[in-house]
Write a structure and sequence with these properties.
Layout (H helix, E strand, L loop, with lengths): L1 E4 L4 E4 L14 H30 L2 H14 L8 H25 L14 H11 L11 H13 L3 H12 L4 H7 L4 H21 L2
Length: about 210
Amino acid sequence: MVRLTLHWLDVTRSGADPDPHTGSSPPDEDLGPLLRSCLPGLHAFVRLRFGAHLRRYESSADVVQSVCAEVLDHRASFRHGGGEGLRRWLFRTALRKIADRHAFWNAARRSPEQEERALDAAQAEELVGAYRSVCTPSRDASAREEVARIEAAFDRLSPRHREVLVDARILQRDRGEMAAERGLDRTALRQLLARATAALADQLVEGA
């Protein structure tokens, strides 16, 4: 059985399907530590990809829980790649689930009546820690206030700046892959990332 706890998150799965090649289930302890190490970045990724609209009506913690549950249910498929392979799997799964939630809320112009989904204190503290890879949080604000300030500033960035910051700082992707995908060389990518970082800093100052 794997039990993963990130203060506010508890995912438990047991009885994995046997590996089709070996006839045995992959050992839980092999995947558990890797998955635990990815959780803060995964939650930050989900929050930033949600955007303001989904953050208002959807629980990012529920999406993280769903992603982890799906990965654990299909962990027989994970044999190689270590932490980087698992990160790619987690973030691809999260991106699909986020796209599904966007499609749900956009269909027929749904107007939800429920109250805004608020973060609890533990979630906010974990997110502030994860967002340190993108910017320097303020020490004067509460964790919830700082998460709201950072996410609002991030929402005001251009799509290009948002994507490069998430890829580089949250996903920690290989810079060569990022440059190739954008048709840039490494120098141009560094310049783009620097501009995105500066733009986020400006938005944080304006929103203070």
